[in-house]
Amino acid sequence: MPKTNSQIVGIDIGTATVRVVIAEMIDGEVEIVGVGEAESRGLRKGVISKPDLAVESIKRAVEAAERMSGLVVHDVYVGLAGSHIKGENSQGMIAVPGRHREITREDVKRVIDTACAISIPSGREVADVLPQEYTVDDQDGIDDPLGMLGSRLSVSVHIVTSPVAAKQNVITSVNRAGFHVADVYLSQLAASEAILTDDDREYGSAVVNIGAETTSLAIYQRGSVWHTSVFQIGGSHFTNDIAVGLRTPIPEAERIKCGDGCAFRMLLTPEEASELIEVPSVGGRAPRAVSRQILCDILEPRAEEILSHVQEEIRGAGFDRQLSSGIVLTGGGAKLNGMVEVAEQVFNAPVRIGVPGGLSGLMNEVAQPDFSAAVGLVLYGLRSEQGALGSSRGQGRRTSAHPIKERVKTFFGIRR
């Protein structure tokens, strides 16, 4: 059995907040033992623009998690995000030499390399390769072709690319903060790790991760990722709309959004709609009072705009009729009251809020949609250290039907 660290650390470097989750093996259970948050500085639209400020934010978040856990962090798994992320599907095919020879890992690696032989613009690199399904001769829909007999092996993959500099800036900033990057994983896929069930992946679902300045989409079908996309719009646009519409400072607009905001007017009773909110003014002027109905009238159109962009992308990719498990909203922007109801109208499909779960320890601290990516990075790290990746770094798809906690035990080789 491969040796594993007893400590796994996930760092989600968001535009608004850096979140850190530390998990440790305790008495045969994988427990979350440390959680840290810090205001994120030096990022714009998910991309590090001022490394010195980003380094300090990373340090503060990790130090908070270290104090809670009593551990010292060394190796970490980091999320890669930003509007620069792009995904596309590709296919590859090879001949399997010899008659009646079993397909080997070398064959699988070779066919994936063939699928990755695509034209990539200068300055970009392949960030991840996610196998979707294999075909042996004329038999398709195969999860893992190892050991099968055939003369021709094909694969469909989803290739994620990013600018070389963007990924390297993330790694360099984490290194300058004093930590070693064990691996980098796409944040929207990490969030999916923590919130989707195997049925969600198999029957079709879309994960919509609403961050501060970007919203990302990942579509799952038949157990694999089939489409990814990122939009340059997110939760901070709600805040800006309030600041402009009510003529109040940004910090006050954020407070009002979190405390009294509602993006779906039908949720407000007549009494709630007429309830007055005190709105501080700028320039030393006296505060004003506005109704929650006015606040809702500001937020609802923006919610519809964000989700309509996602719906257009899903329709354009051809998956609007194939998401039997519906839409899963996650990220900090999903916490705004009324987002589920607006999404159900826009997508005309079942919608739920995705929160991480399934592990033990400090789950109450991370049972929020804005911690999905950080927890997912921990789960990705657990799989990674056991060589069971559902990407090009392993050679297959994730097919376990166990719940998260049981899968984690399996990854660590625990048997009861």
CATH architecture of the domain at 86-161: 2-Layer Sandwich
Q: How many β-strands, per DSSP?
A: 19
**Shape, per Cα inertia axes:** globular
Give the class-level CATH name of the domain at 86-161: Alpha Beta
Description:
The protein has helices spanning 51-69, 105-115, 164-176, 187-195, 198-203, 235-246, 250-260, 270-274, 292-316, 339-347, 363-366, 372-384, 404-411; strands at 7-13, 17-26, 29-39, 43-44, 47-48, 75-80, 86-95, 124-136, 139-142, 152-163, 180-186, 205-210, 215-221, 224-231, 276-279, 288-291, 327-330, 351-353, 360-361. The protein is of the alpha/beta class and 416 residues long. The protein has a domain at 86-161: Dna Ligase, domain 1, CATH 3.30.1490. The chain has a six-stranded mixed β-sheet with strand order 11-6-1-2-3-19, with helices on both faces. A five-stranded mixed β-sheet has the order 14-13-12-17-18, sandwiched between helices. Strands 7-10-8-9 form a four-stranded antiparallel β-sheet. The longest helix is centred in the last third of the chain and has 25 residues, at 292-316. Mean pLDDT is 89; it is low at 388-416.
Write the layout of secondary structure elements.
Blueprint: E1 7-13, E2 17-26, E3 29-39, E4 43-44, E5 47-48, H1 51-69, E6 75-80, E7 86-95, H2 105-115, E8 124-136, E9 139-142, E10 152-163, H3 164-176, E11 180-186, H4 187-195, H5 198-203, E12 205-210, E13 215-221, E14 224-231, H6 235-246, H7 250-260, H8 270-274, E15 276-279, E16 288-291, H9 292-316, E17 327-330, H10 339-347, E18 351-353, E19 360-361, H11 363-366, H12 372-384, H13 404-411
Parallel strand pairs: 1-6, 3-19, 6-11, 12-17, 17-18
Antiparallel strand pairs: 1-2, 2-3, 4-5, 7-10, 8-9, 8-10, 12-13, 13-14, 15-16
Helix pairs in contact: 1-3, 4-12, 6-7, 6-9, 9-10
